[in-house]
Amino acid sequence: MNFFKKVIAVLFIINIIPCDVYSSDELNTFNFQGKLTGSNGIPISSTVNMTFCIYDNNNINLWSETQSVSIVAGEFSLLLGKTSGNPIGFSVNEQGRYIGLAVGDDEEMNPRQEIGGVLRSGMALSVIDSAITTSKIADSAVISSKIADSTVTSSKIADNAITVTKIPDDSVTAAKIIDGAGSGLNADLLDNKDSNDFYQKNVNMGIGVATPSQNMLQIGGSVSINRSGAEHHAVGGMSIVHGGDTFPERALQISPADSDRHSYIIQTSLNADGTSFWWTYGVNKNGLYVINPGSSGINGTSFVINRSGYIGMGIADPTHRLHVNGVARSTQANWATSSDLRVKKNITPLTGSLKKILKLRPVTFEYIDEYKQDKKAFNKTQMGFIAQEVKEVSPEMVTTTSESFGDTTIEDFHILNTSNLTPMLIDAIKELKAEIDSLKLKISDLESK
């Protein structure tokens, strides 16, 4: 039976409630007022059940609620959305929403009434997660004064919504971003870290350092770049590991220096058979720059430069500009010597060389065991001279230096410069030639008589 004729003078009143007083559910309520008459046109005075429904453009029922409504002289007023557990969902806050009303057991009255923009604006007092997309934000609209402290969480912003054009310079400060989960800064790389682990002062940045002041980037600890997760570095140093967790798989290590340690770099190459070859170079605690192939240590003797700029090969303590412990070889020629007339003075012909040569004592010898072991001298029998004896004959061929081997140090170690023998031998040959020529003349005179 169509007892009720119609609802007239229907009025929606937005229920705008301050956010700091009421819950988000209460923000989705509104007043509904109207006047109900019977089929005879006379206003109703009674208590009846009214069912309200909200639909979308496709007549899909988005929300419904039935309330017992008291009507006086046809007029009634009620608050929709207050039924416990049945708030008006945020989805009604869209265009193309309609409200329908059925009284008692009657069918829903026609036509349904469209929910106006004022109602939708009242429902928009709270922002659902991921509702703010980049299309919703004007360029340069997000400024510091628009953002309350600790309000921007990752759940409120859709992925890729805030681009660089949306934020003016100096708008997002540290106070605007909360720490920890939901802040957008808790990626895998920063697990268990928050802003207290990272400090900035002027243009300097510190990791594990509260007051960086001397460097663009100051790290209070070691650095390890290692996809396997294993630790391969000295304290305060740096390692880059290409994979695995064994020592030979370290690709690069930079170790620090202090009074007890060396400062050096280790690099490795992997051979086709899977074995590795090490190259170590750097400065050891003795102040020597060392290149040491085939080892991860920095105390080798393959190539050494000391603080005086002397270069040693096969020796840890070079005493000359080039100090080679072993045999040096040239595929081109012998060592070249500066010999231009224009850079020489006090030039005097060499004489008496034959007598000096005759005084020299060529010998065979072996180096003592301690010296052979430390200096890698030949184990077999050698040929040469005794420097102290040569010094008596030709002092300019001998110099002295400090030499250490094993537990022994000789401060006046004698070194022989055999290159001086060449001009002496030539002069001696010339002397012999002169004597031979003189003897030939005498023999010729005797034969002619």
CATH class of the largest domain: Mainly Beta
Number of extended strands: 23
Gross morphology:
rod-shaped
Which architecture of the largest domain would the CATH scheme give at its second level? Sandwich
Strand content: 25-35%
Q: What is the CATH T-level topology of the largest domain?
A: Immunoglobulin-like
Tell me about the biggest sheet? Answer: 9 strands, mixed
Low-confidence stretches: 9-27, 120-125, 185-189, 230-236
Percent helix: 10-25%
- Decide which structural class fits the backbone: alpha+beta
Number of helices: 5
Mean pLDDT: 74
Strand order across the biggest sheet? Answer: 11-12-13-14-15-16-17-18-19
Question: Could you provide a short overview of the structure?
Answer:
By secondary structure, the chain is of the alpha+beta class.
Task: Describe this protein's structure.
With 449 residues, the chain is of the alpha+beta class. It has 4 domains: 4-123, Immunoglobulin-like, CATH 2.60.40; 129-186, no CATH class; 221-329, no CATH class; 348-424, no CATH class. The chain contains 5 helices and 23 strands. The longest helix is centred in the last third of the chain and has 28 residues, at 421-448. It is rod-shaped, with a radius of gyration of 50 Å. The termini are far apart.
Keywords, please?
single chain, 449 residues, alpha+beta, Immunoglobulin-like, 4 domains, nine-stranded mixed β-sheet, four-stranded antiparallel β-sheet, 12% helix, rod-shaped
